[in-house]
Design goal:
The protein is mainly alpha-helical. It has one domain (about 1-355). About 65% of the residues lie in helices and about 0% in strands. The chain has 16 helices and 4 strands. It has helices at about 1-5, 10-30, 40-50, 60-75, 90-105, 110-120, 125-145, 155-160, 160-175, 200-220, 225-235, 235-255, 275-290, 295-300, 305-325, 340-355; strands at about 85, 150-155, 185, 190. The strands form 2 sheets. Strands 1-2 form a two-stranded antiparallel sheet. Strand 3 (about 185) and strand 4 form a beta hairpin. Helix 4 (about 60-75) packs across helix 14 (about 295-300). The longest helix has 21 residues, at about 10-30. The protein is globular, with a radius of gyration of 19 Å.
Length: about 350
């Protein structure tokens, strides 16, 4: 299995699988052009535990839980579970928070940018261009010696922290299910309208998450890595998976009648293209400096990477800040303080990129 998923055919198969499953999740109930969106789903989870009180985006997304647990299972099966931590954790946390802020200014992670375009949302083009530009800036820092430092081997219990947190979240879903469309059940908050109220059946979402977690962990699937490798090394291996994801999503969306081509009236999106570009410019730079897109960070955390787990927690907390302080966008446009947050985030990234260099 390992040899197959690490091959050219394997990475294409993984991209095709994600490109088929994401539109199906949308068809089964997830929001429009949001069959899978790591940033949006982590934002919903932040709302579910009360880190923000934006009532339309609160739901404990089983797909995210499945990503981590599926990665854990795959890593154990392949003897690839490697607990490690200690590489600039506070910097990774801050990068995670600003990655989320940038993604919520655009309204989507790299996967959703591709899925938005596959559904006909032409505004996603500006987000994808911003993502690539942010990754390109990150490669400039890499060439100048940027490095967050080496992680160290650590206790297995440390590597299991994120999977255990996800198991805890799943237990909360079972203990406190939504009842009669009420906005709160025990300790969890649930949206009764808006994107947070739209979701595929729990078992279907969890099953897809587990499957994607397994195959993505084995293949090292990463959207940020795909563009980084092309820019830095002229290698297209990971990019083939991203292209396959897009092609499969276009075909499945067309078959399911989920394509609407244009800029206006797209689900959970806005048309302020400068900020679509700038939001993903910030997110892409954060992903590059942290070493992986948000999906990849989840898969790494499942295989024992404590530094990736810190980035994930940073994104979840960043979602709370984004909605509590008016940074996140809405279909009406950028939040009242979203523009300032993008500039602050870019300044923080430049600070990290210019100061965190490996010494000769």
């Amino acid at each position: 299995m390992k040899n197959f998923f690490s091959s050219k055919q394997g990475i294409i198969a993984v991209g095709l699988a994600i490109g088929v499953l994401a539109p199906l999740l949308q068809f089964w109930g997830n929001p429009g052009n949001m069959g899978i969106c790591v940033a949006c789903f982590e934002r919903d989870m932040a709302g579910a535990v009360g880190l923000h009180r934006a009532a339309i985006v609160q739901y404990m997304r089983p797909e995210i839980i499945g990503f981590v647990l599926g990665s854990l299972l795959a890593a154990f099966f392949a003897k690839d579970f490697r607990p490690r931590a200690g590489s600039a954790p506070i910097a990774r946390f801050i990068l995670g928070a600003f990655a989320m802020i940038g993604a919520l200014v655009f309204l989507g992670c790299p996967w959703r940018a591709i899925l938005r375009l596959a559904g006909g949302d032409l505004s996603a083009i500006f987000g994808i261009l911003g993502l690539v530009a942010g990754i390109w800036i990150g490669t400039i820092f890499f060439r100048k010696g940027y490095n967050l430092g080496r992680s160290q081997k650590t206790h297995a219990s440390v590597g299991l922290i994120m999977p255990l947190v996800m198991l805890g979240f799943f237990a909360l879903m079972l203990l406190y299910p939504q009842i009669d469309k009420e906005p709160q059940s025990g300790v969890l908050f649930y949206s009764v309208q808006g994107p947070g109220s739209m979701h595929a059946p729990l078992l279907a979402s969890l099953a897809v998450g587990l499957l994607v977690g397994v195959i993505a962990q084995r293949s090292r699937f990463c959207t940020m890595g795909a563009f980084r490798d092309v820019i830095l090394f002229k290698q297209s291996h990971l990019l083939l998976g991203v292209i396959a994801l897009f092609v499969a999503a276009v075909v499945v969306n067309a078959l399911l009648g989920q394509v609407k081509i244009g800029f206006e009236g797209q689900p959970v999106a806005h048309t302020q293209q400068v900020w679509n570009f700038a939001g993903m410019l910030l997110a892409g730079l954060c992903f590059a400096l942290a070493g992986g897109c948000p999906g990849r960070q989840l898969f790494l955390s499942g295989e024992g990477d404590g530094d990736a787990a810190v980035f994930v927690f940073g994104m979840i907390v960043g979602a709370g800040f984004a909605h509590n302080f008016g940074l996140a966008s809405s279909p009406q446009g950028v939040g009242p303080h979203g523009i300032a947050a993008v500039f602050i985030g870019l300044a923080v990234c430049l600070y990290f990129g210019l100061t965190m260099r490996a010494k000769a």
